[in-house]
Amino acid sequence: MGITQSSKSYDLPYIPDNKPQPSNENSPELTDLQTELIRGSWEKVKTNKKYHGERLFHKLFDVAPHLQELFPFGSDLTNPMFTMHALNIMNTLDLAVQNLDKLDILVPKLRELGQMHAAFELTEVEFQYVGESLIWVLETGLGDDFTPKLKRAWCDAFAIISSVMLGAIKDING
């Protein structure tokens, strides 16, 4: 599946073949093995959240430069607000990873985050760009440790995260 923006077409490898479609709390759960794989890889990534968070946004703005206008720091990636937002997304991912097997805790937090983003009228397309950027950060950060099984696990996890957040956005925006 790809998305065309201007004259570029982006392959979005994070979207699983059986991507969950729900827009509410009924998102499917990950397997125990997927949860274990994600947590093991996250331990390596979270040691430098600032670095990886900034890389995620650099990649995001590379594949979707028009998204810069949604952020108060715009294209000024030296602005402290940029670093703060990069850390915020990594802290949210940390919360998600910690609670992958506790959806009763995770889903309300993700819905709240989705509601906070409703004013930006985000769609699945923007989440696909973020997902692509996240997978790129993980793949380049973990190198050979980023196996196909690990990639599938992260793809499935991000599909769940994005579907819950999008559900909250749709509840507000219609």
From TrEMBL:
Keywords: Heme, Iron, Metal-binding, Oxygen transport, Transport. The keyword Transferase does not apply. InterPro entries: Globin, Globin-like_OT, Globin-like_sf, Globin/Proto. GO terms for molecular function: heme binding; metal ion binding; oxygen binding; oxygen carrier activity. The keyword Heme applies. SUPFAM superfamilies: Globin-like (SSF46458). Residues 1-29 are annotated as: Disordered. Pfam families: Globin. Residues 29-170 form the Globin domain. Residues 20-29 have a biased composition (Polar residues). Belongs to the globin family. This is Neuroglobin-2. It comes from Stylophora pistillata (Smooth cauliflower coral).
